[in-house]
Amino acid sequence: MDNRILILAQDKADASDLTNVFVNFEMNDTTGVMTFTRLDGSKVTHDSAVEKIALNCYLEGNNFVLELADGTKQKVSLSKFIDTYTFTNTDRIQFTVNGKNISADIPDGKITLAKLEPTIMSTIRQYTLDAQTAKGVAEQAASTAQGWAIGGTGFDGNNAKYFADKSKRYAVGGVEEGDTSDNAKAYCAAAQAAAQHAENMTHISETSFAVNTGTGHLTVQIG
User: What is the domain count for the chain?
Assistant: First the structure.
């Protein structure tokens, strides 16, 4: 018996230890306030804000609407969910908006050398040097071609025009002074005249000559 009393005395709780023990719980379904009652009768309340729980949501115009448990509504503008980006036109790039499409365009002549990648600049400089070299070669070739065609420094007496003029001078004349009778055409005409005269002479059957002693003239009589 004594041992049982001792064990019971050891296992029981003191009233002071049970003072803060909650012995009851209540919740207001309308306000969401929870009430906790201690052993000593004191109460502790906690607002769970259950009335603020969203039971429904929908779009209303440009607003996102939350319908809460207490029947109230909270509206949030859709613009709050969207970041706004501003595209600014400059002299180097122009933006165009067409509905939901945004396009960018670089105006003609607005890309400067400073905006080009270094290897492109190197390539352009090499092309420039090559073009300058080609220009010099072309000018030299043009000068040489002109010299061979019509003469010039280093080509006097050794060009196409010179030889063409010489050919004309000895062919028909009319190029330099005194060449009208000293050319192939003049000699050909003279040869033709001599040949015709010779042919005429072959028709003479009998010829008599007489000299006028008074005048010294020679008279030829063909008969």
Answer: 1
Asked if the structure places residue 51 within a domain, the reply is yes
* Residue partners of 132: CB distance under 8 A and separation at least 6: none
Q: What is the pLDDT of residues 118-163, one digit of tens each?
A: 888 888 888 889 999 998 888 888 887 877 777 777 777 777 877 8
Q: Which domain holds residue 77?
A: 2-85
Residue 45 forms part of a structural domain: yes
Q: In this predicted model, what pLDDT tens digit does every residue of 95-107 receive, in sequence order?
A: 999 988 999 999 9
- Helix ranges (H only) for 151-183 are 160-171
> How many helices, marked H, and strands, marked E, lie in the chain?
4, 10
Q: For 16, what's the count of Cα atoms within 13 Å in the CB-facing half-sphere?
A: 0
For the record, the structure tokens of 26 come out as: 């209540």
Question: Does residue 151 fall inside a structural domain?
Answer: no
Whether residue 46 lies inside any domain: the answer is yes
User: Which residue is associated with the tokens 């008599």?
Assistant: 208
